[in-house]
Amino acid sequence: SGGSGVYQAEEARISQGVVENNHTGYSGTGFVNLANIAGSYAEWTIQSGTAVGATLDLRYANGTTMDRPMDIIVNGTRIATGRSFPPTANWDTWTTTSLPITLKAGTNTIRAISTTGDGGPNLDKITIH
Ligand code: GCU
């Protein structure tokens, strides 16, 4: 396949963050609470049988009143800078933001990295389709 699938945040490689389940509405067994610092990230490793364009959906919650921007890095290339993750009313309310990505044949990495001292939103999962 072309990397299509659902990839939980709690199964990603996490740098400066923790898996938690103290809010509702997540899929899988929990979500990732990234540290409230710039540079905290989750990184997924995705296999794709072919080089292909796809859509990346990131499901997140942001229970604050402030944006929690992140950069999105695919295979080491920053494809989105300061991508907006606007408030979702509370930490139990999840929404999805989508962007186009390009996968290569073989192993791909997708990293969502916090860009401000507030850190990122809570991350539930990504879906590639
Ligand atoms: C609260 C919330 C966490 C969230 C954090 C944040 O502590 O319970 O789930 O990650 O705020 O501001 O990032």
From TrEMBL:
Where the record annotates domain CBM6, the positions are 5-129
Q: Does the keyword ATP-binding apply?
A: no
Please provide the record's keywords in A-Z order: Signal
Gene Ontology MF terms in the entry: carbohydrate binding
UniProt name for this protein = Chitin-binding protein
Q: Which organism is it from?
A: Streptomyces nymphaeiformis
